[in-house]
Queue: 2 jobs
Job 1
Amino acid sequence: MKSPDLIDLAVRNLRESVLRNSLTTLGITVGVASLVAMLALGVGLQQMANRRLAKSGLFDTVVVTSRRDFRSYNREDRTTGAGAAQSRALDENVRAEFEKLPNVLEATPDIRFITELRYDGKPHLTMVSGVAQSARSNDAFDSMQGRFFSSDMADEVILQKEFADELITGREQPDSKVQVTAEQLQGLLMKEISLRYAERSVPDQNASSQNAAATAQPNDSDPAALSSFSVIRRSRQLRIVGITDQDPEGIRGSARGRVFLPLKLLQDLKVMLPSEIRENTRSFSNQQTYLTISVRVKNTSQIQGVQEAIKKMGFNTFSIVDATRSLRRFFAVLDLFLGIFGSLALAVASLGIVNTLVMAILERRREIGIMKAIGASDGDVKKLFFVEAGVMGFFGGLAGVLLGWTIGKLINWGTNIYLVRQELPPETIWAVPWWLVAGAIVFAVVISLCSGLYPAARAARLDPVQALRYE
């Protein structure tokens, strides 16, 4: 019997018991819908986490530290390359070398320091951090009040909301009784704030340093001490252009900045950093040194290659990709369990297929006997029942995907309503990739074919003589 004839005959037989076959197909639909909805939820949550991490700039960034400052957590790194004493410091020369590596977009130094800012005549001590112009796409700046820096050398500043509250209330610790309104925060924008900092100055050898706030004289016994440096107290007027409620440096803990300036501006100010004080006690350098440098790559797939190249240069590296291995493992286990629980309904539906086809055998004994009498083989009978099971599985799987997609849309819609009421940005927590659609339909057909094994074998074993005597 040809395949088109088998399909035509199977569809005709399914039409004869519309109610029973429809209920069986509906059972498959519900099973596939539960499977699709659960797996789509797991995929959506994973994509949401990936989007957040990617937009924060963490996924495509390698953080580089000098072995002079930190020991690597990787034992292999500690046994290869230069030792801590021979390791190079992270200065401008090293940063330029990083930017020349293949697949590297930029290498930005980490400039942060605790200093005093004055607003409305009152001093405030806090952490100041430099932000590169490429951080404009960071999700922490999406919903902020005001705007991002107009240029990388603008005398502008963005405040973290907690520090903005401190400027308004005059209290370093938040007070639940004092509520800062959005109008008060808006009133801070375009106001001026004074930054006081220590400038690192490298005077000429013959120049006098009597006007310097602090001076370190070269040690003649140390050949590495080539010159002196001066620390000069400076002040800079800045304009407040933005206030962000989210924290762009959340993973830094207590070292995260609360006041953000353009990175190029901070580099031009030549602020004396704690790392430079330490380096200058070892050997004097005319270049600014940094505690860490963030190397941004073109694609996350190139992270490993860039890390290996930097390690060969004698530096320690860390990327969030290393830390997210456990996160990917968690989502893999989550998807597995969601798939198992979603498949339970499909397993129950398979029992309905077995019941439907067994009942069809009892009702169609005479038809089966006639088919065998006119030359149909046992294999033809098996194929017929297999095709009937596959047709129910296909249409049930197709309807199940549509139902699961609808359920997911409703869940996402309801979740976003809740998030908006909580004054949180809407999220897409549900996603149905193409492979899930194809996999769900194929899985439904396979389950249906497996469910048709017993009924097909039973129908093929019928004796045509006994079948023709039926009824």
Note: Residues 59 and 321 are 6 Å apart (CA to CA).
Job 2
Amino acid sequence: MNTLRLLCTLTLLVSLGWAQKEVPMPKDLPAYGPDRPLQAPSVKVSRLSNGLTVWLVSEPGFPMLSYTVAVRGGLAADPADRPGLSELLSNTLDQGTRARSAKQVAQDIQAAGGDLSVAARRDCIEVSTTVLSSKADAALKVVSDILQNASFPDNEVTLAKRNLSDSLRQRESEPSFLAMRAMAKVLFANSPYQVVSPTQESITASTPADLRQIFAQRFRPDQAVFVAVGDFDNARMLELASTNFASWKNPDAAPVAAPARPSASPEHAIFIVQRPGSVQTTLQLGTFGPLRSDADFEAAEVANAIYGGTFSSRLTTNIREDKGYTYSPGARLSTYQLAATLVTRADVRNEVTGPSLNEITYELNRLATTSPSDEELAKAKRFLVGIEAIQLQSRGDVAHELATLWVDGLPPEEIGIYGKKIAETTTADVDTAAKKYFPASRTAIVAVGEDKVVRDALAPFGLPLRAAP
């Protein structure tokens, strides 16, 4: 029996070793075709007399269109004693107006062939829908009614608070959420950008009156963009926008101010979130990156793709394919209006918590000190150019991307510039961005897991061990 077990073990080890070897591609495969950056849509830019920005993209043919309205002032604008209030507002914005009940709002938008989506983001609240082109006027009437006349009925707010409280409890059971929330607090400290969700206390304390007050302050045309993409005539759509938003007025108060841009790197320390009984450790390493408007943004995107932003990245090859420490590691550059973060994430087995952090640190420093190969550079650029084209295939995605550009203070032309800049990125550009943003010493480390396991595994790194804020 012992001999059989030994043979089986040896067979498994040989199989695993073989599986980790890079399998060569067939030699008769055709060469890659030329990269084709996304063709930028033609955007007609207008501004109504009340200050509402209008961006229109006419794409005749398929009889659908997408509306997106973004209003500046999201989670980062919430009152200090009501963190995450924007999420409750977004969950109740379409639950009734002065003229429509929640049921009527849903029925009217469904009659136009779509439904409404409302989302609270760091810098804005976004309302969107995709409907039949023939119902453009009817759908816009519903959208404009919500943006101007949302009423936040007491019964709907009560229900939304209960649902949001349940949702928050569910999220707080997930180590990835705990890590994200802790990382935001570590990176942004007292900045409003530290808010990623409500708290149970803020949900309980929030009232319909709070929502009505915030709605009246933030939902103003001079702090909003209306984007329409699809099968319509630009002149006719501008007329519809002018008609439906003509009565939207700006309050006398000043608009919500944007948060300040962080100016210093976070403390290079390990912040522990206790999760008793956890059989894994969730690791996140975070630091600040470039804004989308910064000259080195695209170079940092390419550097991140080489390091950990793609399935063939150095990080994935190392700790997933070679060592088997984790199933799906990754790294992402996220940008906001006045902040940007570079975050590495990995869920690893308890017993490889220390080795995993060691390899992540190694790959960050390797990128900061070692130029990518020509093949790595070509793969990363091809991926980023291709994924942008895939992600912006639908009209709703294009409308969302344009609205995001506006919120970030960028022109609509940026949607076409990005791919071209990626394609033009050189090895020297990547090296410069990597040295600036990717050294491991710039990162704060969040570890979610069994406290003793995490402390024992990470103490040898010699970094301060702190309880996460």
Note: Residues 348 and 415 are 37 Å apart (CA to CA).
